[in-house]
Specification:
The chain is an alpha/beta fold. The chain contains 9 helices and 6 strands. Helix content is 36%, strand content 13%. It has a 6-stranded parallel β-sheet. Helix 8 links the parallel strand 5 and strand 6. Helix 5 packs parallel to helix 7. It is globular and about 45 Å long.
Length: 206
């Protein structure tokens, strides 16, 4: 049986701990995973992820880019890993919707890269997924047949994030507007799992 892991991250540690991101690091202090930089660096290495995949019998993993603080993984960073290990990873692109050229960035990726989908983290990227400014990007994904993955549900990082931006019910507006768009809700909505189930039941996809 083929097993594909649909949700993996590799964080670009050099960007997370860069000078420009120092003011974000206080939000990591209560998360044990990030208490030891050296340990985190080893844990988030490509080699460690491949070893875990081999141990679990996973053939391929979808690897997410995240254009946001703390979970920073740029599109170039992810695409390079996917190119080096094309038989093991499938890359999904990301763009912070608050960038002035967000649509152009994603359009260029869709047209010129090998990335196969899009990943958004509304709380860390500080936007509401049903904001109409996102419509051009969703249409781009729908027209290209690319799935869009939304982080929904519980989110750490203290008052850096707004939990209401991770409400799965916001995705209903997106699904209504783009009935052909393939949508993935992460973590079963965590504590909003009932809401996530309601969306999946109301908006069934083939």
């Amino acid at each position: 049986m083929r097993i594909i892991n649909s949700h993996t991250h590799l964080i670009d540690i050099s960007k997370v701990f860069s000078a420009e991101n120092q003011h974000y690091l206080e939000y990591l202090k209560d998360i044990p995973t990030f208490s030891d930089v050296d340990k985190v660096s080893k844990m988030l290495s490509v080699e460690n992820l491949l070893s875990q995949m081999d141990e679990a019998g996973i053939e391929k993993s979808i690897l997410f880019a995240v254009d946001a603080p703390l979970l920073t993984a740029g599109n170039d960073f992810v695409e390079k890993i996917c190119q080096q290990h094309a038989e093991r990873f499938i890359g999904f692109a990301s763009v912070n919707p608050n960038r002035e050229n967000a649509f152009e960035i994603m359009k260029n990726i869709v047209e010129k890269s090998a990335m196969k989908g899009m990943k958004f983290h509304p709380p860390l990227q500080d936007f509401y997924p049903n904001d109409r400014k996102m419509w051009p990007i969703y249409k781009l994904a729908s027209d290209a047949g690319q799935p869009v993955v939304f982080h929904v549900g519980s989110t750490p990082f203290g008052n850096l994030v707004k939990l209401k931006q991770a409400d799965p019910l916001l995705i209903d507006d997106v699904a209504n507007e783009f009935p052909e768009l393939k949508i993935v809700l992460t973590h079963l909505g965590t504590l909003w799992h009932n809401e996530s189930f309601m969306i999946a039941e109301k908006q069934p996809k083939d």
